[in-house]
Amino acid sequence: xxxxxxxxxxxxxxxxxxxxxxxxxxxxxxxxxxxxxxxxxxxxxxxxxxxxxxxxxxxxxxxxxxxxxxxxxxxxxxxxxxxxxxxxxxxxxxxxxxxxxxxxxxxxxxxxxxxxxxxxxxxxxxxxxxxxxxxxxxxxxxxxxxxxxxxxxxxxxxxxxxxxxxxxxxxxxxxxxxxxxxxxxxxxxxxxxxxxxxxxxxxxxxxxxxxxxxxxxxxxxxxxxxxxxxxxxxxxxxxxxxxxxxxxxxxxxxxxxxxxxxxxxxxxxxxxxxxxxxxxxxxxxxxxxxxxxxxxxxxxxxxxxxxxxxxxxxxxxxxxxxxxxxxxxxxxxxxxxxxxxxxxxxxxxxxxxxxxxxxxxxxxxxxxxxxxxxxxxxxxxxxxxxxxxxxxxxxxxxxxxxxxxxxxxxxxxxxxxxxxxxxxxxxx
Length: 428
Hints:
Elements: H1 29-42, E1 62-63, H2 64-72, H3 76-83, H4 87-106, H5 112-122, E2 125-127, H6 128-134, E3 145-150, H7 155-162, E4 171-172, E5 245-253, E6 256-266, H8 272-275, E7 285-288, E8 291-294, H9 297-300, E9 304-308, H10 313-324, E10 328-332, H11 334-337, E11 352-355, E12 369-372, E13 375-378, H12 382-388, E14 411-412, H13 420-423
Parallel strand pairs: 3-6, 9-10
Antiparallel strand pairs: 1-14, 2-3, 4-5, 5-6, 7-8, 8-11, 12-13
Protein name: F-box domain-containing protein
């Protein structure tokens, strides 16, 4: 990225309590940007919860539209540094990530806004390769399908919604034409075949002897992007399967003949139940319309991860695939992976949980996980909370859906420390 042709700008005022507008085009503007890039590149790679600290003068004369360009070339460590600069930069990063989410999901879904509304209504999340790709902006591989994880009681209503001809108009791929399991019928499962009642303690408990083991999106049969077998034994789809999923159906979308969406129903009314049993910590990530979550950011953002050992043949093929994409994966035993005694735990000590709606704090988000003093855990009341939660997202404080819809504010002097209460817990 060349900054040598940065033009001069006129002074304009922006009404933000943390920022002051100043005249631009001075002789030090380009130097400040160069210093910022140098400091970020030389800083040790740490956790996004503790981003590198920059000199106060670095952002003194940085035009907003130049910041917008820099964001396109920033990994999540750099984005974390930008977010801590001031409230305006925080919102710019949030808008950039929202735009990134829309671009990724838009490859599979023609109407992202409607898709987001259905995710909120039915308490579903996006995971798998799309979520992993979201956190790796410079990766050269692309996901082959979109994996949507749905609460157990919401699976059939969600399927009806996405196949509505007046809506998303997805088309079910017949089992004989796909690698998905046979569909379940609309009649309710018997108590023996279904999961515990929503809200019961057992909802977020793994199968005996499998506490918090991460099996993987490969274990949701061969239906996802990480599919490695043409068929999967029927016992793999039994409700008592330790993989945490009950059923998978595949859909084609109006976006194209080769665009596929896999809908996976969890053995719980919390879709994160499946993610807790993924085969590798590398893929313990998920997206919603208002948030992005990375379970193990320190490792994942650098392309590292652990996987459950001994490896199954099916997951072994997935392991080879991820290694071919440049990931470095190390085996860990059941005991090494299961170092948190709480079976409801999700992710590492400090998962990355960032809003995708400008003006929101992490504490404002409506998620299937919740923070505790010992880390993040799954919410046992997720389904009930979903039904009560408004389908209308909070208003955008700067009234811009797109990063580049920002007012033509030229520069900002970030010489006021961010409000601690505003940024509290936004980097975990």
